[in-house]
Structure formats: C-alpha cells, structure tokens
Amino acid sequence: MTALLEVSNLTKDFPVGADFLGRPQARIRAVDDVSFALARGETLGFVGESGCGKTTVGRLILRLLEPTSGTIRFEGTDITNLPEAEMRPKRRDLQVVFQDPYSSLNPRLMVRDIVGEPLKNFGFSRSQIDQRVAELMRIVGLPPEYVSRYPHAFSGGQRQRIGIARALAVSPKLVVCDEAVSALDVSIQAQILNLLADIQAQFGLTLLFISHNLAVVRHVSHRIAVMYLGRLVELASEEALFERPLHPYTAALIAAVPEPDPATRGRLAVLPGEIPSPLNPPPGCPFNTRCPKAEARCRAELPEFREVEAGRWVRCHLPG
Ligand code: SF4
What we know:
Blueprint: E1 3-16, E2 26-39, E3 43-47, H1 54-61, E4 69-74, E5 77-78, H2 84-91, E6 94-97, H3 111-121, H4 126-139, H5 156-168, E7 174-178, H6 186-203, E8 206-211, H7 214-220, E9 223-228, E10 231-237, H8 238-243, H9 248-256, H10 296-300, E11 306-309, E12 312-314
Parallel strand pairs: 3-8, 3-9, 6-7, 7-8
Antiparallel strand pairs: 1-2, 1-4, 4-5, 9-10, 10-12, 11-12
Residues 247-248, 285, 287-288, 291, 293-294, 298, 303, 316-318 line the site of iron/sulfur cluster.
C-alpha cells in the first residue's frame, strides 16, 4: 500500500497566559516530534489519555491548526503551509467526524441540508445533492425519507450516523474520527464502530481514528499509535500491540481494558499516578514518573522513537 499521508517531526506549541502587553508567559508543547505514515485504505488508531495531544494531531492534519514545525504530506504534496486558496480543493479529500453528535449538527437545519452542506460548498446542483443525500442515508443505515427531519428528532446514535453521512458526502480520501463514539452508550458505540468498519472496507476509505479508549480503537484499527505527553511512544499492528506490548505505557493501557475472561483480567498492574503537566514535563523519558521499570538512565535521557522490529516502533530504553 502506498502512503496517503506522511507526517514528519510534527510539533505544536500553544501559548499560555499573557503579560500586560499580551505576550505569552509560557508555552505548552502539545505535540512533540510526531512522525508516522498512513497507507491508503488503512485505519490507524491514535490512543492516549486526555490531554496527550492526539486530538491536536488530528486538527493539524486537517489544517484546522497551524503546526509550530514539521511537515504534513498528503498524496505526496506538502500541505503544511499551503495557502487557503490552494488548500480548499484538498479539503474535499480531508473530512472529520466529531465527538459530540448533539452539538456538531446545526439544530435549525434539516438533515437534507446538514448532509448536503459539503456538496453545496463544492458546487453540486440541488438534484445532485438530493440524490447523493438519499444514497448516503442508506449507506449509514437511516431511512432516506428522514431527510426532512431536524436533528432533535434523532437519537445520539442516529445523529452520529448523520455526522458520518456528512463526512462521506464529498467522497473524501481521509476521514479523521475524533472521539467519534465517546459520547454514546456502549451498545450504540458498537453499532457505530461496526458501521465505520463496514464503510472503511466497502469504500477503501482511510481513517485516522482518535480515542482515549483502547478497546474502541482496537475494534476498528489495523495499526495503533500510542501517545503520551505529546509524543508517540509505540506504533504497531493491532495484533502485535495486544500480543506483546513493548512500551510499559501500552502494557498499562491494555491492562486497563476490561477482559471478558476473569482468569486473565487484571493480569498487569494498572498505571499509578497522574499524567504530568505539559507545562513542566519530567526530564528524560516523559513516562519515567509512572513507569514501574524506570531506572537512572530513564530520568536523564529521552529515548528515541525507533523501529525495533519491522513495522514496530517504540520510544523506550528497555522495550518489551
Ligand atoms: Fe519506562 Fe524507562 Fe522505558 Fe521510559 S524509557 S518507558 S521510564 S523503561
């Protein structure tokens, strides 16, 4: 598979506070030197605790935020600093499904107009829009005759189906799903995850699936990237990651996933402590304040993100 998206050394700082002249008092590094590639037709899961930078990575790729440094290449073109006029046609290929199906749909618009909005923006005629919206409703499992209803008439799961239909409207190449099922009940989550997996397989879509929930990420992802305090700490296929996590943080996340089998449940220690403040990250390995394997070197030297086996990347002095 060829790479659809290549991200190299992506970094994003946010200013914090301001003095009387409006100058920032400090900077938080939300994303730090993140590199990965996403193949066409692949689903890459991005997982980590709240505040680890995964949502910022998604927004940088969508060019909703400007990076501090690094490069984003989409279909071989460097889009990192592309002016908006040149970026606009590319936006058709880059779509997003947001977390909250209640606030992400305009309550004053009918479903026909919500789903049809991206088509209208790209110059489709009214009849083309109506035809495509009906097709999209069927794809996401909603009756096409519901297009004249307003969002309040739908359940949370149905609203997220509408959000997915809108994201698919202009046949994008890459869809970023940002905590796309987190606001839904567990039973509804499974239905939406199955829908996303079906759509991905049917249309060969490429998905970047961002979630704090590793069990959810596992359900849909071919490969999984684990983030901690703004950095990637492990990247591997879904099978390899769950079979033999190489980073202690990944191991702790896996231990926290509810196991159906009581014999294996809780076999690894659950992670102690809080994620450190990105304003004051620990020296050396960012995970050393919570890591059961930490030794003197971990507190002094930042481990590199390196490929330890074919396709397996890890940032740890003592992997495995
Ligand atoms: Fe733990 Fe050290 Fe590896 Fe960091 S480098 S994850 S502290 S063993």
